[in-house]
Here is the input.
Amino acid sequence: MIAAMDQVDRILAQWRTERPDLDFGPMGTLGRMNRLVRHLREGMDQVFAAHGLNRASFDVLATLRRSGPPFALSPSELIEWTMVTSGTMTNRIDRLEAAGLVERRRNPDDKRGFLIGLTDKGHALIEEAVTEHVANQRRLTAALSDDERAALDALVAKWLAAFETD
Here is the structure.
C-alpha cells in the first residue's frame, strides 16, 4: 500500500531537487512529528478548554490527583513532577487557588512549609477532565493498532533516552 504524498513529502521533493547532495530523511521525520504534535495538542487542548482548563492547569491538577490521598504535594515536589520553574509554579498555584481548585495547607511534616492540595471542587473537576482526556487520547491514537502504538512507544522511548539519560 502506497501512502499519498503529504506536505512533508512535497517539501522534501523540492529539497532533493535543489540539494541532491544532502540526506533529508531526518527532516521528514522531524517535520511530520512537528505537524503531528500540533494536531495532538489542538485535540487535547479542546478537552482541557471544555473543562475550563489549559494544559498547564490540567498538569498541576493531574499531578496532585495521581499522587494519591491526600492529593497534596509540596511546591518543590510539584515543580519536580511538572518540570517548570518556581516562578511558573507559583503563578499556576495562585490561579488554581483563585479558582477554588487547590488550597495551601500547612505541611504536618514541616511546620514552616506548606502543601498544595486539591479542594473538593478541584478533585471533582480533575476526575471528569482526566476521564475525558484518556478517552480523547484513545481517539487521537486510533489510527494505530495496539501493536503499532507499542512499537512506536518503544522507538520514541529509545530516542528520548538519548536526550534524557545521564
User: Anything to note?
Assistant: The mean pLDDT is 93. The helical segments are 7-18, 25-50, 55-66, 75-82, 86-98, 120-140, 146-164.
